[in-house]
Amino acid sequence: MGAATGIGIDAARAYGLSAFAGANVAGRLVYERPVWIHQPGRLKDCTMGAFSYINSRGSCSLYRCHIGRFAQIGEQVLVGPPDHPSDWFSSHPFAFTQPGLMPHMDRMPEFARLAPEDGRLSQRYIAGVATETVIGHEVYMGSKAYVRRGVTIGHGAIIGTASVVLDDVPPYAIVVGSPARVLRLRFDERIVERLLALQWWHYDLAPHKHAVDFSQVEATLEFFEQRKADGELEPLTPETYTARCDDDVYTIEQQRQPLYTMPDNADYPAVGAPPAPRPRAAG
Q1: Has this prediction a pTM greater than 0.70?
Q2: How far apart, in whole angstroms, are the C-alpha atoms of residue 111 and residue 148?
Q3: In CA terms, which of 13, 48, 67, 104 is 20 to 30 Å from 241?
Q4: Half-sphere exposure (CA, 13 Å, Cβ side) for 254?
Q5: Do residues 140 and 159 lie in contact, with contact meaning Cβ atoms separated by under 8 Å?
């Protein structure tokens, strides 16, 4: 399908986007079909891989977040909210914003009088901080989890309920707590290595679903390893779109290629730039 302008949420489903009324999509959402965004509190300038969903009723917010395929995001999750400078004269936006960046505040004449008149201070601040957050393929995030901007969540990881994630999470790790710590791996290291080598999320598994029992990890892994070695796994190449939304009215445009393709874009989407490293505090 090509492009569509001025369509509602029912028509958007024909483009692989399932959303409830009131979904707050700000900026653009680039996605592979299908995805389910239900009713997030805010979804700003994000990408989503195929089969990922945000299971929310108006209580999730994700900012500049790249979400892999088959990701599962629970209720009241907060990912990548903007940081404020802690080592400037003030952490208030008047010190580091730029015109148009915070339009609701700009409308107040008192704020406009105090705030910068150009983007020089904003660019200086942005240059020193991470702006993108990455959630890998097949990540499961429990309800009320918080993920700091600039963090990368490895493929297959599980983020426990109400965990506060401040640093990168290894693939297939289970993390819990505040701040989050690694509790254990989902599987033993040998299985994890084989899953990462298989990269099953890049293949169409549907033709083989009756040949495996997904509750049996090692047997299923062996089956798909053999199918891959025999050249019997077809790549998953979902149609990909850019969506913009204004009061539940969508404009959708098809993209030329999926977000994730092997080998060049196996782990990071074709849209956007890799996340900048987060500066570490001295000492």
Answers
A1: yes
A2: 27
A3: 104
A4: 12
A5: yes
- Sign of the C-alpha dihedral computed for residues 33, 35, 40 and 42 taken in this order: negative
Question: Would you call 139 helix, strand, or coil by DSSP?
Answer: coil
Q: In this model, does residue 215 exceed pLDDT 50?
A: yes
Q: Where are the domains of the chain?
A: 3-83+131-186+239-254, 84-128
The pair of three-digit structure tokens given for residue 51, joined into one six-digit string: 């089969």
Q: How confident is the model at residue 55 (pLDDT cuts 50, 70, 90)?
A: confident
Q: What are phi and psi of 32, to 5 degrees?
A: -95, 140
CB within 8 Å of 228: residues ≥ 6 apart: 198, 203
Burial environment of residue 195 by CB neighbours within 10 A (0 to 12, 13 to 18, 19 or more): buried
CB atoms within 10 A of CB 193: 13
CA gap 203, 228 in Å, rounded = 9
Which superfamily, per CATH, for 3-83+131-186+239-254? Hexapeptide repeat proteins (2.160.10.10)
* Side chain identity, residue 78: L
